[in-house]
Amino acid sequence: MRTRPLKVALLGCGVVGSEVARIMTAHAEDLAARIGAPVELAGVAVRRPGKVREGIDPALITTDPTALVKRGDIDVVVEVIGGIEPARGLITEAFAHGASVVSANKALLAKDGAALHAAAARYGRDLYYEAAVAGAIPLIRPLRESLAGDKVNRVLGIVNGTTNFILDKMDTTGAGYQEALDEATALGYAEADPTADVEGFDAAAKAAILAGIAFHTRVRLDDVYREGMTEVTSADFASARAMGCTIKLLAICERAADGGSVTARVHPAMLPLSHPLASVREAYNAVFVESEAAGRLMFYGPGAGGSPTASAVLGDLVAVCRNKLGEATGPGESAYTNLPVSAMGEVVTRYHISLDVADKPGVLAQVATVFAEHGVSIDTVRQQSRPDFQDTASDGGEASLVVVTHRAPDAALSGTVEALRGLDTVRGVASIMRVEGE
Ligand SMILES: NC(=O)C1=CN([C@@H]2O[C@H](COP(=O)(O)OP(=O)(O)OC[C@H]3O[C@@H](n4cnc5c(N)ncnc54)[C@H](OP(=O)(O)O)[C@@H]3O)[C@@H](O)[C@H]2O)C=CC1
Ligand SMILES: N[C@@H](CC=O)C(=O)O
Fold first, then answer.
1. What residue spans of 357-427 are helical by DSSP H?
2. Does a structural domain hold residue 248?
3. Could you tell me which residue ranges the ACT domain spans (predicted)?
4. In terms of domains, do 244 and 127 share one?
5. Same domain, 293 and 182
6. Ligand 1 atom 28: the closest Cα is on which residue?
7. In whole angstroms, what is the distance from residue 346 CA to residue 339 CA?
8. Percent of the chain, pLDDT > 70?
9. Given a cut of 90, is residue 176 above it in pLDDT?
């Protein structure tokens, strides 16, 4: 074993960084044995130097991450600050000053992954980011390396722990949205600004990364259709239960049947209780991969939290350190196909639409005609009178009409809903939710 240690600069010492530092110290001997050289924490960059940080030598703390990465003797930079800047500039400086980089920063990788990969290649360094998608779950490496000889056609996943935690609590305990979010934040799952979680930005970033790796193409954050989960109500859960479903915020990346394009989307969806992803509880993540030769694979585990995420960071650290010692780099970017990313309108799936309608003769026929005119085939219709509503315009009361469709293009469904809103007898569109799984 080499005795001279590899030097690691830790940028950020929050939920994830503090766990990385703790495990580096606690498992120093094991890490050294696996790498073939000891690893030494050479500096820890933070924003608030006065904060007590258990187990970290105060002499290592700095508020100048740029000076740390420019020192010239750093072998690996671990970036767990998050956000776009200064993280992006620091990673680029790290490459320029001789270091490889391990990052957990999905927001940055989804936005600027291509430029960062190009910079890493230019300087002959590694850029690893297993922790950026689905926390502790080994996913990037299996997709990039283990499935490199296969053709992945679909990736369907629960990739945000915070929203899965909230939806699970709402479903199983009847908890309110805010109560469940507060609990997820206290447990360290949520981002500093939980908007990124609940509005689906975090999952969209992960979907962009996953789609890019799975289909060997370039998918940017802006290519991902995104809907958050803040509008999901207890009434939606009741509708889902009536259909034998639950509701999950899903990231779905698909290759078109003709192989000529891909789509990536994030939105809440009803999922049959029999689907393996339906039983993913609390902040757990799971990703279902469908490939030509391997068939269906499922990856499951903790997707957020300091210690699980640190596990993925340290796995990358070991790999990058081994590459350093071997004076090699690992597999770089696999984006070589440059497939176009289709718009959401071209996505084909099923829909659950809940309408408030006047409860009088002919309404069902009117509604069915609108679906037919837009080429959307109805699978089931359920009507329920609503004694709580009084019809102001006519003799009848109001009814709730739940339509579940067969598979149809998203654009056709949007057209249908727009036309339904124009009917006098349709008082409102209470909810529209996609239905995934068979
Ligand atoms: N938390 C999780 O479960 C997961 C997080 N991630 C990703 O990991 C990364 C880190 O997340 P997390 O640990 O939760 O974030 P935190 O907010 O807990 O930690 C951020 C750290 O960065 C430091 N920091 C912020 N700005 C600067 C700056 N300008 N210069 C120096 N240091 C700075 C903060 O310093 P100070 O301590 O002084 O405030 C803090 O130590 C993010 O990219 C996140 O998306 C990925 C998977 C899961
Ligand atoms: N906020 C994220 C953390 C991991 O990426 C989540 O809740 O999944």
1. 363-373, 410-421
2. yes
3. 352-434
4. no
5. yes
6. 47
7. 15
8. 97
9. no
Q: Indicate which CATH number applies to the domain containing 120.
A: 3.40.50.720
Q: Which ligand is nearest to the CA of 44?
A: 1
Q: Edge-to-edge, what's the strand order for the sheet holding 61-62?
A: 61-62, 39-45, 6-11, 76-79, 100-103, 127-128
Give the closest ligand to the alpha carbon of residue 56.
1
127 and 199 fall within a common domain: no
Q: Is residue 337 part of a domain?
A: no
Q: Determine whether the shortest distance from the Cβ of 129 to ligand 2 is under 6 A.
A: no
Ligand 1 within 6 A of 192 CB?
yes
427 in a domain, yes or no?
A: yes
In whole angstroms, how far apart are CA 319 and each of 51, 127, 210?
31, 11, 20
Atom of ligand 2 nearest to the CA of 104: 5
Share of the chain above pLDDT 90, in %: 88
Question: Which of 133, 139, 140, 197 is the best mutation target for the ligand 2 pocket, counting ligand atoms within 8 Å of the beta carbon and taking the most?
Answer: 197
Return the active site residues. 206
Q: Find tokens 């998203």 and name the residue.
A: 410
Please check whether residue 101 is in contact with residue 124, taking contact to mean a CB–CB distance below 8 angstroms: no
Calculate helix-pair angle for 161-173, 234-242, nearest 10 degrees: 70
Whether residue 131 has its Cβ less than 6 Å from ligand 1 = yes
Pocket flag, ligand 2, residue 194 (CB < 6 Å): no
Question: pTM of the entire structure?
Answer: 0.94
Give residue 369's pLDDT band: very low, low, confident or very high (50, 70, 90): very high
Distance in Å, CA 297 to ligand 2 centroid: 22
Q: Are residues 27 and 87 in the same domain?
A: yes
Count other Cβ atoms within 10 Å, centred on residue 337: 11
Is there a single domain that holds both residue 128 and residue 161? no
| Domain identity same for 242 and 128 | no
User: What is the tally of structural domains in the chain?
Assistant: 3
**Does residue 140 lie in a domain region?**
no
pLDDT of 368 over the 80 cut: yes
- The answer to whether 79 and 44 have CB atoms below 8 angstroms apart is no
